[in-house]
Amino acid sequence: MTTHDVTLVVLDMAGTTVADDGLVELAFAAAARAQGVETGSPEHATMLAHVRATMGESKISVFRHLFGDEDRAQGANLAFESAYDALVDQGRCEALPGAAEAIAELRGRGRKVALTTGFSRTTQDRILAALGWQDIADLTLCPADAGRGRPHPDLALTALLRTRTDSVQQVAVAGDTGYDMLTGTRAGASVVAGVLTGAHDEPRLRADGATHVLASIAELPELLAAR
Predict the structure, then answer these.
(1) What is the distance of C-alpha 6 from the center of its chain?
(2) Distance between CA atoms of 84 and 126, rounded to whole angstroms?
(3) Is the link from the previous residue into 143 a cis peptide, with omega within 30 of 0?
(4) pTM across the whole model
(5) Burial class of 39 by CB neighbour count within 10 A (0 to 12, 13 to 18, 19+)
(6) Buried b (16+ CB within 10 A) or exposed e, 76-108
(7) SS (H, E, C) the chain
(8) pLDDT (tens digit, 0 to 9) for every residue of the chain, 227 residues total?
(9) Domain range 3-19+94-226, its CATH number among 3.40.50.1000, 3.40.50.360, 3.40.50.2000, 2.170.150.70
């Protein structure tokens, strides 16, 4: 089956269709401080390295790994969401160039589009509202909607089920992190496209299963149409 047969495109948000601009790291610093970890400390540096390596993963899963204790993880997650939401409210959230146009082109050619995230539903909805994207996609999903977040296949498979897509081979997954690539490969997607507008570089994307690496999401409609 070729990419011409793709009928569902599952897209990541931050770093893929939405500019990150360091917001995740700023929000993480606030979350760490809420748990007594000061910015610039050796402990903070170690935690930040893990955050960068696991970009794309469900945020509560990241905090569970970092803090171990469930109460601390939940506290960090709440502080993260509060800090990130404040940054969005300050106008620090914008679409990546060509992202809205790419989504419109994909849907215009009869493909369904699902926007997915590692954030909570509250934060995802705040981002969509800030961009005026409430109706830009056929479906939006966060980890709580699917059962598990990345790198598990749940987000892509939930999108398949909810859009009544017939086969995993009719699915394309695109994102900026290795975890996005793992989600796509584990879900059996025929196209797993990495984009270079976010967290991870081409070697990381390839190592985690990217079938294609694109400069940006703006190139995805042409890739699918050409094949």
Answers:
(1) 20
(2) 10
(3) no
(4) 0.88
(5) middle
(6) bbebbbebbbebbeeebbebbebbbebbebbbe
(7) CCHHHCCEEEEECECCCECCCCHHHHHHHHHHHHCCCCCCCHHHHHHHHHHHHCCCECHHHHHHHHHCCHHHHHHHHHHHHHHHHHHHHCCCCCECCCHHHHHHHHHHCCCEEEEECCCCHHHHHHHHHHHCCCCCCCEEECHHHHCCCECCCHHHHHHHHHCCCCCHHHEEEEECCHHHHHHHHHHCCCEEEEECCCCCCHHHHHHCCCCEEECCHHHHHHHHHHC
(8) 445 589 999 999 999 999 988 888 898 899 899 989 998 899 999 999 998 888 888 888 889 999 888 999 999 989 989 998 899 989 889 999 999 999 999 999 999 999 999 888 999 999 999 999 999 999 999 999 999 999 999 999 999 999 999 999 999 999 999 999 999 999 999 999 999 999 899 999 999 999 999 999 999 999 999 87
(9) 3.40.50.1000
- Those residues whose C-beta lies under 8 Å from the C-beta of residue 144, and which sit 6 or more positions away, are 120, 121
Task: Retrieve residue 92's tokens.
Answer: 């620090």
CA distance 157 to 14: 20
> Domain extents for the chain?
3-19+94-226, 23-89
d(CA 1, CA 6): 9
